[in-house]
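Hey,
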Amino acid sequence: MALVAIGFLLNRTSPTNPEVRSSVVSVGQCVESGTSLVIDFGSNSDSSLIQKCVSNYSGTSWNLFAAAGLEVSGTEQYPVGFVCRINGYPTESAEKCTSTPGATTGSWAFFISNAGKWEYSPVGSAGHRTKCGTAEGWRFLSPTEGLTTPPRVKPIIHSCEK
């Protein structure tokens, strides 16, 4: 697996971050205002798909997790920027997250909506800024899945202009 979610090591997820503090979260993808966040735990997981709408937020994709009320962990090598674990998945027994996960364990892939379809992100989560009206998706890819296998739900796109 390639480094799919590496970004700049400048942003810290923190509840004191004003971008995170002022956000409003609802269940499901956004239909009027905000950025949608979709988490697909992959074909080998029993975890349910997570879909959140985060309004009043304009920060990085890394901090979008905290704004949505989700937990994200990097690796010891890249503590902010490379997504190793989302909401406890994969478990610590499956992936230690000491360094970038290898092809034998699987890893998270980052997608951004474009014209109603998922597009593999060329930028890491700490280096990407969210945009109102778009969706961001994450899918855990097993070693047998292609790097660009998108989340299994279609992104909802909307206009934030009134």
